[in-house]
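Colleagues,

For the teaching module next term, I've prepared a clean inverse folding example: a structure given as C-alpha cells, and then the sequence designed for it. I'd like students to try predicting residues themselves before seeing the answer, so please don't circulate the second half yet.
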C-alpha cells in the first residue's frame, strides 16, 4: 500500500511507474523466497527418504536370489513392509507440512465439546495401550467445557501426542489426557502426560524441529521427525504455544491452551 506524498499532491505518472516496478520486483522476490523455501523442504525430504528406499531396494534384490531360505525370505518381506509403511508415513507428513507452510491449510474454527474429542482419542488408542499393558486416563472438569477451534486439526494434535505417549512409554505405564479450565482468562489448558522414558534435557530445545528425532534406549531414532513440528504449527494456528516438560525415566508432559467457547 502506497501513501500519498507528505504535501498531499497526487502521484505523478513517473511515481506510478516507479511504484509499479518496485511492486513487481517485490512480488518476484517474495515468490522466489517461497520457491526457495519449498526447494529446501523438498531437499530435506529427499534426504530423509533415502534410508527407507535404500532398505527396500536392497532387500528386494536379495529376495530375487533363488538361494534365499524361506524363513530368511519372510524376514526380508517383513522389513520391506515396515520400510514401506515408514515411507508412506513420511510422505503424508511431508505433504501436511507443505500445506501448512504454504498457507493452503484451511481451519474451520467453531465451538465444540473437547471432552468428547478426548474420549474419542482414548478409545482410538486403547488397543495399542492394552497391547503394552498401559492405562489411559481422562481427567475432565465438571461441567464439561467447550472450546473454539478446528476439531479435526485438534484431533490430529491429540492423536499425535497421545500415540507418542503410548509408543515411548514403559510397560505397565500410564497416560493422562487432562483438561484444566482457566476461567479468569477464558482459556482451557490441554495436557498429555505420561510415565514414559522421558526426554533428555539437551534434546528438549530441538524436539519441534523438522526431521529431528530423539534416539531410543538402543540409540536408534524412530518416527518421521515431522509429527511434533506439525503439532507445533497446528497449535500456533489456534493462537497458542505448545509447551513441554520432561524428566528421564519419569515422564513427559505436553500442554497448550485453547479459547473457551462463550458461555462456558
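(Answer key — instructors only)
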Amino acid at each position: 500500500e502506497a501513501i500519498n506524498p507528505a504535501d498531499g499532491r497526487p502521484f505523478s505518472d513517473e511515481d506510478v511507474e516507479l511504484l509499479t516496478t518496485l511492486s513487481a520486483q517485490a512480488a518476484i522476490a517474495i515468490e522466489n523466497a517461497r520457491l526457495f523455501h519449498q526447494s529446501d523442504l523438498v531437499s530435506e525430504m529427499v534426504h530423509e527418504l533415502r534410508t527407507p528406499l535404500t532398505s527396500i531396494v536392497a532387500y528386494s534384490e536379495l529376495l530375487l536370489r533363488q538361494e534365499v531360505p524361506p524363513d530368511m525370505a519372510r524376514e526380508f518381506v517383513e522389513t520391506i513392509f515396515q520400510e514401506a509403511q515408514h515411507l508412506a508415513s513420511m510422505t503424508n507428513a511431508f505433504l501436511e507440512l507443505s500445506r501448512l507452510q504454504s498457507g493452503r491449510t484451511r481451519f474451520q474454527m467453531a465451538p465444540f465439546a473437547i471432552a468428547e474429542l478426548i474420549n474419542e482419542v482414548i478409545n482410538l488408542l486403547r488397543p495399542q495401550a492394552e497391547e503394552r499393558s498401559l492405562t489411559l486416563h481422562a481427567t475432565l472438569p465438571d461441567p464439561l467445557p467447550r472450546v473454539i477451534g478446528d476439531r479435526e486439526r485438534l484431533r490430529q494434535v491429540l492423536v499425535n501426542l497421545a500415540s507418542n505417549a503410548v509408543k515411548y512409554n514403559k510397560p505397565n505405564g500410564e497416560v493422562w489426557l487432562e483438561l484444566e479450565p482457566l476461567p479468569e482468562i477464558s482459556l482451557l489448558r490441554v495436557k498429555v502426560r505420561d510415565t514414559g522414558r522421558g526426554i533428555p534435557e539437551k534434546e528438549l530445545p530441538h524436539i519441534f524441529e523438522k526431521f529431528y528425532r530423539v534416539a531410543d534406549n538402543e540409540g536408534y531414532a524412530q518416527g518421521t521427525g515431522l509429527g511434533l513440528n506439525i503439532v507445533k504449527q497446528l497449535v500456533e494456528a489456534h493462537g497458542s504455544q505448545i509447551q513441554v516438560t520432561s524428566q528421564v525415566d519419569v515422564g513427559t508432559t505436553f500442554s497448550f491452551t485453547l479459547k473457551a467457547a462463550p458461555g462456558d
